[in-house]
Specification:
Elements lengths: L1 E2 L20 E2 L2 E2 H11 L6 E4 L3 H11 L2 E4 L5 H8 L1 H4 L4 E5 L2 E5 L1 H11 L3 E9 L6 E3 L5 E4 L2 E2 L5 E11 L1 H5 L7 H11 L5 E11 L3 H15 L13 E4 L2 E2 L4 E13 L4 E11 L4 E3 L4
Length: 288
């Protein structure tokens, strides 16, 4: 299941036009990239939930052959999974946030969960010094720190990237509304239940803010080995440097476009630097 119901408030005004999982990353929507990863691991049946701009999520679901479960009210990450219970069936369930792009080894995540038989297995990245990152891990890889609460001896820190496998037992404890971390994992840890942390993630990008969104696109462009995308884009009066242009983008003005992401159908006027251009907005990103 991919969680796609949220409002994406930190990414506004971009999410006034598209739900966060549908914002373009390089040559495809974020959701497309996530679905490719899941299907590469053999997961053919994928469910998404929808609330904010549900018709757009529904159209994407139809295009990608996904099952779409609509929520009449925001239920939270845990509540969303609970609400989709009939659609996802029984047993262990892979759940992925629809607002994070990660180099995620889904196959190994599932294998580690099956081998350890934990309440849940959290995909983590960037093992580092104890006390650092969003989770703390014990010597055996179990989670012993989460949201500042400590449940055992920590030997390494890491970052939880919003991908996990829930056991059938964990799914029985899902609240009708609430958060996977705050309303499922933390109560379980307080009861003495053990959660696993699987180091199955390389780089990751939380597409939470316009600056993070731009950074993710620029990383995609670098990985593609292209100065700009599409690679054959030329204009007599405009020099393009590290730009990603969606279908039917209109270029106007003269000068340089540098580190610009243009959505399909947008009109981009040069000169412009470090910006996201949609049909309705130009969002300028300050230099970091």
């Amino acid at each position: 299941m991919v969680l796609c119901a949220g409002f994406g408030t930190r990414l506004r005004p971009l999410t006034e036009e598209l739900p966060k999982p549908l914002v373009p990353i390089g040559d495809a929507a974020l959701l497309d990239h996530i679905v490719r990863q899941l299907r590469a691991a053999g997961l053919e049946r994928i469910v998404v939930n929808a609330h904010h701009l549900p018709d757009a999520v529904g159209a994407a679901g139809k295009r990608l052959d996904l099952d779409v479960v609509r929520e009449t009210a925001i239920l939270g990450t845990a509540g969303g999974v609970h609400h989709a219970g009939e659609a996802v069936g029984v047993g262990a369930l892979v759940v992925v946030n629809g607002d994070i792009l990660a180099e995620l080894d889904v196959t190994t995540l599932m294998a580690e969960h099956a081998a350890q038989d934990r309440f849940a297995t959290l995909a983590v990245a960037d093992r580092r010094a104890s006390g650092q990152g969003t989770v703390g891990l014990a010597a055996d890889g179990t989670v012993v720190r989460l949201r500042g609460e400590v449940f055992g001896t920590e030997v390494a820190g890491a970052d939880f990237v919003g991908a996990q496998v829930l056991s059938a037992d964990a799914r029985r404890h899902l609240p009708q509304e609430g958060c996977l971390v705050g309303d499922l994992y933390l109560p379980a840890l307080r009861r003495g239940v053990r959660l696993a942390g699987a180091a199955v993630v390389g780089r990751f990008w939380d597409i939470g803010t316009p600056s993070a969104y731009l950074a993710c696109n620029l990383a995609w462009l670098a990985d593609a080995g292209a100065a700009s995308w599409p690679m054959n884009t030329v204009h007599p009066d405009i020099l393009l440097t590290q730009c990603i242009l969606g279908d039917a983008t209109e270029l106007a003005g003269e000068g340089t476009l540098c580190e610009v992401v243009a959505w399909p159908g947008a009109r981009v006027v040069a000169p412009l630097e470090r910006a996201i251009v949609t049909r309705e907005h130009v969002v300028r990103i300050g230099n970091l």
